[in-house]
Write a structure and sequence with these properties.
Elements (H helix, E strand, L loop, with lengths): L2 H19 L9 E3 L18 E4 L2 E4 L4 E4 L2 E4 L4 E4 L2 E5 L2 E5 L2 E4 L9 E2 L5 E2 L2
Antiparallel strand pairs: 1-8, 2-5, 3-4, 6-9, 7-8, 10-11
Length: 123
């Protein structure tokens, strides 16, 4: 392993350990690298349970190469939509933006109506 990779890995480990010891913090870490991520991999989206949405897979950077992180179901947030992880090219570098919840504008989720037997039905 290259010495620069070892140093980066040690620094990242120390940073993550210090952050974990400091308690919960809500910070976003952007990664800047000069190697473009590969094309996204095709994933079969499974049937998702009610109250969940699919967060698609993405390429992450592990310090010396891209690794594929598989998609997964996540708990849905009412009034929000999931904006998936993505890479953006700026000049000679690539920046990763972590997936996040985006407010879904003025759209309000539809509530399921119950019929006379108490069964729920979508509009």
């Amino acid at each position: 392993m290259k010495s620069t990779t070892v140093v980066r890995t040690l620094l990242l480990s120390a940073f993550l350990a210090a952050g974990a010891a400091a308690g919960p913090a809500f910070a976003q870490i952007n990664v800047n690298i000069s190697l473009a991520p590969p094309a996204p991999q095709y994933e079969v989206v499974p049937v998702i349970a009610p109250g969940y949405v699919w967060a698609p897979g993405y390429w992450a950077w592990n310090g010396d190469r891209h690794i594929w992180v598989r998609g997964r179901p996540i708990v849905q947030r009412e009034g929000y939509r999931w904006e998936p992880d993505r890479w953006e090219q700026r000049g000679n570098g690539y920046y990763r933006h972590e997936g996040r919840w985006e407010h879904d504008g003025d759209k309000k989720p539809k509530k399921a109506k119950k019929d006379k037997h108490g069964h729920k039905h979508d509009d």
